[in-house]
Specification:
The protein is mostly beta strands. About 10% of the residues lie in helices and about 30% in strands. Strands 1-8-9 form a 3-stranded mixed beta sheet, with no helix packed on it. A hairpin with a 2-residue loop joins strand 2 and strand 3.
Length: about 100
């Protein structure tokens, strides 16, 4: 995985728009099930953060592996994500893989 971007500032693994989890899991419906809210980070900060997140991403590469159960995703190979990078965005009360492409 080259880039693992996260638009959820309140996630425990989000450090400067990069996911720092050692591995993440994406469900069959493309939800990031590794998302872990950090109570010390304000949900209200997400709005300001998402507006400027392109400027804050350091562009580093994540060593994380991505287990993907989204069977209809173009990037899923034997439950492993083969995309060059993914982005996770806020959806309702959780997190969703925005890089999902239906095959």
């Amino acid at each position: 995985m080259k880039e693992l971007r996260c638009g959820l500032k309140d996630c425990n693994f989000n450090k400067g728009y990069e996911c720092k989890a050692a591995r993440i899991s994406v469900s069959d419906c493309a939800d990031c099930v590794t998302y872990e809210p950090d109570g010390s980070k304000s949900k209200n900060d997400n709005i300001m953060y998402e507006a400027g997140m392109d400027n804050s991403f350091s562009g580093g590469h994540s060593p994380a592996t991505v287990k993907c159960e989204a069977k209809k995703c173009l990037f899923n190979r034997a439950e492993h994500c083969v995309a060059n990078g993914i982005s996770v965005v806020s959806e309702d009360a959780g997190a969703r893989c925005a890089s999902y492409i239906d095959k």
